[in-house]
Design a protein that fits this description.
4 helices; 228 residues; Umud Fragment, subunit A; single chain; 11 strands; 24% helix; elongated
Amino acid sequence: MTRRDQIRRLMEEAGSPPLRQLAKLLGTDHSLLSKYLEGPTQPRKNPLLWDEWEAELRKIIAKKNDLAGTISASRPQLLQLTPSFPMVKIPIVATASAGRGDSEALDDSLEVPVIFSNPNYRGLIARGDSQVDEIFGDDIVIVDQTSERKPGVISCILCGPELLLKKLEWSRSDSRWEMLSKNSAHPPAALPFDAVVQGFVVGVYRPDASGVGFEMKFDPTGRRFGAW
């Protein structure tokens, strides 16, 4: 296995963040990283960079594994972050109603651990109480963008000016898609014909009062969100 192959394998183990983000984590320029990954089998210049990059990638993988273990062992306790954790930013694009209400466009971002990095993820600030005990007002929900209607998960649905967070289920008796809320105060409603699915919830981020720690639920399949 060439050094290039080793670096690529380590990149995959580190979660394959976008090239610019990875270059930043490695302390190098993304064009240089791209050139080395796509160039000849053995680099002619700065061969020691491979050693430095491999060492940094192994640190990222170790921190990722430590963080994943902490999440698994400590739910639903808060995670205390330090600057040593590699972080990436995802955009926060709008408010979304867990209930009723017009959506508001936003231009913000959220720093999350690199293991949650995915260029398809977008953040929404939740409003309302229809998904009580699962999603609270002011939680930041992370949505995997797709137009697919996925049954049994909480989805982000555009209904006119409203961006709703609702669990989608297919009703065989009525032959229609229904939008469901965990809060019984919000009765089921038929999915409007002109509704557009924007994605499904894969994570919920809830900062603590200090702004240093946070609780984060994460499931890339979305199945744990809506398992009620």
